[in-house]
Structures are given as C-alpha cells and as structure tokens.
Amino acid sequence: MLKNIPEVKLGLIAVSRDCFVLSLSQKRMENVVKSCSSIGEKIYAAKTIVENESDMLKAVNEVKEAQCNALVVFLGNFGPETPETLIAENFGGPVMFAAAAEESYGDLIGGRGDAYCGMLNCSYNLGLRHIPAVIPENPVGTADEVAHMIAGFVPVARAAIGLKSLKVITFGPRPQDFYACNAPIQPLYDLGIEVQENSELDLFVSYKAHSGDKRIEAVAADMEKELGKSGNTYPALLPRMAQFELTLLDWAEANKGSRSYVAFADKCWPAFPKEFGFEPCYVNSRLTRAGMPVACEVDIYGAVSEYIGACVSGDAVTLLDINNSVPRDLYESRIKGRFDYEQSDTFMGFHCGNTPFCKLSDGKIKYQLIQNRLLEGGKTPDFTRGTLEGDIIPGDVTLFRLQGTADSKIRCYIAQGEILPVATKSFGGIGIFAIPEMGRFYRHVLIEKRFPHHGAVAFGHAGKAIYTLFRYLGIDDISFNQPKGLPYKTENPFSK
Questions:
Q1: 10-163 placed in CATH 3.40.50.10940
Q2: N or C terminus of the chain: which is more exposed, having fewer CB within 10 Å?
Q3: Is 258 exposed, middle or buried (0-12, 13-18, 19+ CB in 10 A)?
C-alpha cells in the first residue's frame, strides 16, 4: 500500500465529576485499556483524570505529546460537563465519547458512577457548543463493550483524518454531456477537502517527460507479476502503462503541497486513449488498490467516496456504474430459487476496467468495447486496449456515495448487499449485485434525490462505519435501502 491512508493513533482521556470518587473512574479506565489490549487495539491513556478545566488542558497536552490523532473521552462516572466537552474542542481531531456501565448489584453505593446520566448532559453540552463527536449506538458499557466501541471508532477516525488532509487532483473537464460528474466545490471545502484542477494537456506533457524513466522496467515487471500469464494479454502495453503510473505517482508527490493524501479524478475518454495509445483503466485500478483512488470521468465526488471506502475498509475499493438490469432469463435460470432475492433486488454494476485485479475472479487486460466502436470503428483494437476486465468476486459489498448538490448541500446514500456468484457473460469489470429492496431504493433514493450513475463499492459490509462517519461530518441527508414495510417519503402508497 502507498502511504496514502492515515494511521490512527488512539488516545484515551478519562473524566470524573469532583463530587464522585475519582478512583472509580481511574479503575474503570484501566480496565478499558486492558480490554483494548486483549483485542489488539493500542491506546494511550492520559495519566491526568479530568475533573476541571486545568486538568483538561493537561490531559489534552498529554495525548498531543504522545502524537495521538484520534481520541476517546471516557466517562468513568457522571463526568464534568464543561471540561469533558472542552476536551473535544481543544483536541482538534476526531473524538468519541463513551461511558461506564455499573458493575455490580452488590456495589451500588460507593461503586455507582451514574455515567448513564452523565452522557445525557455531555451530549447536551456538545450540542450547545456545536462540537462534532462520535457517540456509539449504545454508548454506555462494560470495559469489554467499550473496547469494541473503540475498535468500531478506528475506521471512522481514519476516514475523518484522511478527509481533512485530502487533495483531489483532476485532469480535464468531465466528458461532454456527462453533467452527472459535475462537482460543486463549496461542499468539498466544507469537508476540508482541497481540489487542484489541471488540463489533460498538463497530464500529457508530464507523461511525455517520463519517457525513458529508469523505473519503468521495474513497474512493468510488477504489472507482469500481478497479471500472471493468463491476465497479461497485451505484454507490449506494459511499459507504456508503467510510464503512466509513474506519471501519476510523481504528480501526486509534487503537487500534494500542504496535504498528506491524494485522490485523482481523470478524464479517461474520448481523447485519452488515442493520444496516450492505451486506456488508463488498469493503471487506475493499481493505484486504487494501493490506497490512492483514481476515479473515472473526472468524478470528483466519486474519488472522495472511494477514498472514504478505502479508509474505512482498509481494503481495495472500486467505482462502478449502477449499470444495467439483470435479464429475466438470467434471473430465472441462475438466481431464482438459489438466492433469496426478487429480480428487482438485482442489477449489474459495471465499469470499463478500473476494478482492482485482486477483486476480479479472472482478471485480464482487454480493450474497451464501447470506445473501440466509437473511436476505432469496431476494427481490431489498438489504442482502446488497457482495460482490466472480469467478473467481480462474489461476497458482501457496500454501495455508497457522497454527493454535493448545486445548492451547496451534501447528501449521501448507503446500501448493503452482496455480489452473487453468478457469471455475467458480459464485458468490462462487472458483477451481479443483489441489494434488498433495490428497486424501491433505485426509484426513491437514486432517482428521486438525483444521484449520478457512479456508486463507490467497498468490499464487505462497511455501512455502520460509513454511516457514523457521515453523521460525524454533519451530513443530515443520509439515505439507505429501507426494508419492506418502511415506505419512502415519496413512495406512492397506492402503487401496489
């Protein structure tokens, strides 16, 4: 992996209201640290237990000196409202609040901490001060339960840290008549994301300057190793694609400036293949697999969504068209009776060839069929070669997207489901998706809320962490695939 995904260094500050026994909070904090260690979560606990504002400053300084970039505030008892919320304000990074459950029926006098009550006042004060914080679904728990809350907080914190230091680098305007890839910039700034816009010519000049780069041979050899014999169908293309990969990596390093992390959004057609001599898809897939997403068709919000998925999952991601319906004969012969889905729950997710090799069942370098028709008249492919194609591996997936609107608002969606182990018999990087109640979700979220055609895909069920992140970022408009019996606001009650 490239060093393009933040490493989370967790800190823990325990708080105690001065009219409660401080040692109770101390003991409960120590138990949380032990429980974290038992599940492999490293966490630095501040020595200062916070009872007042002076303690708050000392404790925050401790975790900063320990280079912590994410923080857990732990209410070992009722907790002091003002100091505990000022911890989050003064820390400057993502913060989660959790509280201690009572421990024993036999110790509800001296050993009662009332943190269940204290969390109410804590959240009230966070709201008064407009301080964003992560509060778990069940924020009051035993040491083991709090440790698992902390483990769930880590991917959220990783994404939040990454976004605050992310630069999206673009090349070219969106393709003609692709208004869906329009990217209102204000919501990106609101999230703390920087954007650097460049022309396709800038990219082409840089690519030409990398001709003869001594590193090309090593990168091409790595491509050859990844693809294997069966996937390396156009070996002569590898040096050119290696040259392009080095171009993007060097551009990222030279242009990230004050930011730590980079994602790309490139104009990949129609001019690119003819001028560069290949399609960029395979290179895009390799950088995305390494934690530096490259979104197709200058889809800036798609690139941001992919980056979120990479941070949250710690795994490769992809960006796909929510593309085509599953034919009736395919559904009847290969899906119905084998899987518990209606035909309306299914669709095919596709893109030309940007899905990482590790997420394809039998990946091969091929050519872009649609562009071959358009640009090469359907003749023997030449410069339309370079896509990475194959059926996407089956398993759990999360389909999601963050999107800025024309009036500078942010909305998003999350839907969990799976990719079915059913052959597509089609082209591109493609898979058959099955998402419960997809038909209704398609109509009343994707269409009703004017989402574009690209959806980011994380492999595995990452909806809980992504939803928590969106809430932490202050996004109010979060849609999901609602189950049967829970109608959408716009759903016609007389349609069935």
A1: yes
A2: C
A3: exposed
